[in-house]
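pipeline/complex-builder :: batch 7 item 3
reading input block
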Amino acid sequence: MLNNFPLWPEQASTLAHRVDALYIFLLVITGTMALLVCTLVIFFAARFRHRPGVRAEQIEGSDALEITWSVIPLFIFMAIFVWGAVVYFRERTPPADSTEVYVVAKQWMWKVEHAEGQREINELHVPVGRDVKLIMTSQDVIHSFYIPAFRIKQDVLPGRYTVEWFHATKPGVYHLFCAEYCGTQHSGMVGSIVVMEPAQYEAWVSGNPSGPLSVSGEKTFAELGCSTCHRPDMQGRGPNLQGVYGKSVQLEDGRTVTADENYLRECILDPGSRRVKGYQPIMPTFQGLVTDEQINELVAYIKSLGDNQSGAKTTTRAASQLSGNAQPSGNQVQ
Amino acid sequence: MADSSTIMGLHQEEEHHPELLHHFAEAGQQRDAASLGMWVFLATEVMFFGGMFCAYLVYRHWYFGDFGAASKSIDATLGATNTAVLICSSLTVVLAVWAAQTARRALLIGMLVFTMLFGLAFLGIKSKEYYDKFEEHHVPGASFNFDHVPVPGHPGEYANPRHAEIFFSLYFVMTGLHALHMIIGLGIFTGLLVMAWKGRFTPEYHTPVEIGGLYWHFVDIVWIYLFPLLYLIDRHP
Amino acid sequence: MSMEIAIPQPVERENYLNKEYGALSWLLTTDHKRIALLYLVSITFFFFIGGFFALLIRLELLTPAGDLVQADTYNKLFTMHGMVMVFFFLIPSIPAVLGNFLVPMMIGAKDLAFPRINLLSWYLYIIGGALMLHCMLTGGVDTGWTFYTPFSTNFTNTKIVEAGIAIFIAGFSSILTGLNFVVTIHRMRAPGMTWSRLPLFIWAHYATSIIQLLGTPVIAITIVLVAAERALHLGIFDPKLGGDPLLFQHLFWFYSHPAVYIMILPSMGVVTEIIACFSRKRIFGYSFVAFSSIAIAVFGFLVWAHHMFVAGISVYSALVFSFLSYSVALPSAIKVFNWTATLYKGSIRYDAPMLYAFGFLGLFTIGGLTGLFLAALGIDVHVTDTYFVVAHFHYIMVGGAVMGYLGGMHFWWPKISGRLYPEGWARLAALIVFIGFNLTFFPQFILGYMGMPRRYYDYSHMPEFQVLHVLSTAGSTVLGVGYLLPMVYFLWSMRYGKPASDNPWNAAGLEWKTASPPPTFNFDEEPVVTWEAYNYEELDAPPHKQEVTVG
């Protein structure tokens, strides 16, 4: 039984080491503090126990002591705060060129869509040594995507995207938990993260039946008629989407926003609320007309459109990846 | 309802004339305690409404234009009339307190009656407003309809009905709870009226009028905030 | 020891207990002491209900598979455990029982400022509690005590509205208690009882009342909005209708974080009194301990979003709230250091209340220090929503608040009942509670860091967690025994306990200067205070030495 009984969670990502380092630092600091308080209490309780004829010595207090034991903990707290914030910033900032995986949560399963097109349920296959960014949304209630071995967790909200990322360092199979209570089968909303050696992973990817997400997105884009207004030149009635991802966009009301995944999503579902400057409010809402998976495809497609030249390149690359299978690519917008 | 009991409780404290209760050392202490109690209670009321104001501010920031459009659909004249009614009622409350301090029983009764009439007028106008909203399908729920309402200042653009629905949700919750406070206030003033009729108030003892008045002023002040936020955010001359 | 030389009163004096008899004399009483006892009975009832749920939860987790109860039942169990314990036991526990009993006496008043409101607040509590019971018996709620939207508004068909109303009503009971305390402490102090002479128990209750007054209305309006959203399909928190579920979390934690201080501050006050008495010393750094209570109440309102570091708030707000969370840790640390320093050069006895206070010190220190882990952003991401959090808040709310509550019950039991509890049994119970508590909750820290998420009824995917769960369940049965014991011997002592003298501990404080049990208006004549708080030096001065010699 005891070999089933580790007291430390596995470390399988770059972040795990950083979190553990801070955790150990805190264990030492707080252990010392706790030991200090407990030793003093026990020592005083024993040393100054009631003895007949010996009276307590009244001490009013001491400002010097009060200041000492306020200021020293304050400095320690600030050190912990800064260290914790540094780790958190790293946790919250996905590297620019991460591999992207879309996650849709629903009661009570995780649906995963890789940019390359693989779909999985309650499993996520990733290669070792690559930055992977999860772009997540929920179809119903709030869930939370938690991988203890990677020390990452992020709530998954309905109606918007949240993001987390990791860089796996050790092949293996790790727990995936839903950490935000989500209803009856909350404890059944578990899965596994399969971290594979790159070669194995390539083999797994090549067993892929469908095309890349961006290609499905391109198809959806055409089917929904988006391409009639959003043209790759400046002639369309809607903004040109080439290279829009990650850029700042000037809005009608004078504000600027960065066109991130959440903004793209919002524009599909609620086009009126943050409209690009210079365009008429003519786009209908797609709320209720597209599924979360379709939105993910559309977002992946829009993101795959680089600026004019490199956009073409991405599409070509996507198309060339497709060459091996039967997916038709004739209905490209360009 | 709980707040009403507090109020009732507060002046029940001093129901028996001569009004000094056993656990107070002297009348001054008792009066101070009652008025401090009311002030503290009003502080909790501020937080109670504060939660809703906070929700309002968040969504007003998010759905700026939609809130403007929705706000514009409410009859500001009715709102302004109601504001005037409440300001008048505050005046009559102040006069009632003064009448109690200076032992003018008839004036006190008159002012209490006027205050209550103003309160009733407020509720009447409010129900007219609710009725209009109901007619226009602006009550959130299945039959809510806010299609094709232009956003002020943005020609050609229509408010998002879902966002307008949030405005009306907040509108009904906020004005509804305010109206509930008004009704409780009317209850308190009925109690005061009965006590005044029986001649229970003297220049030495009129704490119930004072703290009842405090409550009434508070309800008025909440309205003074609600009125611009709900009626006036997008009116341009 | 002093209690053994207490002289039984030959003729029983008239006191608040024997003045009147009959159910009505209790149900219509405006005497704060009788209302305190009404509360004592009712919160004990809810404590054992909540505890029963807790035991079922622990039993279910004994094995990895979900085999004792169904998933739905389990979800209702932890929800009702949380709601009952938080809203119907912990929040009213010390303020409504010990606070109600002692606040007027400690400041030399005949009663609270508004006795009828005090009774009203008990009735509100009972109405809320009855609704909650009805809700439990007819199906219960399965959202967790946190009511997170949109699950609570659109995705569950359990009795959210009824539970919401129950909590709303109980919330008003809490507000009215706070209102009564604030006004009483401001306006009803006896001549000479200046602010700097107030016992620190009073300061702690003053700080608690501020939180009750300013925090509770926010949860009240939040619950109104959730109920309205469920009943009328408003869209305030529903993302499908353009609302924001995070707004709910902000409003909820704006109350529910300070609510933790409603639970722990009074307990700190109790422990301060006990430590001073059993060390025979003035508390070290009186003004620092007093103002740290106020600081906790104020800063407590500024840290709510530290429950939401992974909920989808921005990195910058997370930074601010992490920083502020450390600011609220500081006053707690100052208190711990001051209590420890008070022991220095004291004359320390190990009576049961002091054992509870020692237990409080240890457990609260661990609970507080693990709070530092949770406030550290990088670590919180890993451990939030795991058993680490569960262990942390139980260390504060059970290890801290309940230890203090039990310590206080023992300390003031002679005053409340006029009888002495059996000291040996009481010390044994304190020991059992301490051991049982640590056995139950310490393994949960390790479980949490290893990644065990909370609110799981079935962990058959991760059987490696079973050893720690078994330890925890074993501990919970020990803890259960530890909690039953005091109830048994308190009841026993009401009839068979030795009569207590007016001041069995030879303690400072006005409440000990009147009879045990006190007369209805507390004091036969209005006290005039001419001494500082915790004047143990005068109490123990040689002229009075004949009182106590050997224990």
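note: Residues 89 and 115 of chain B are 5 Å apart (CA to CA).
queue -> next item
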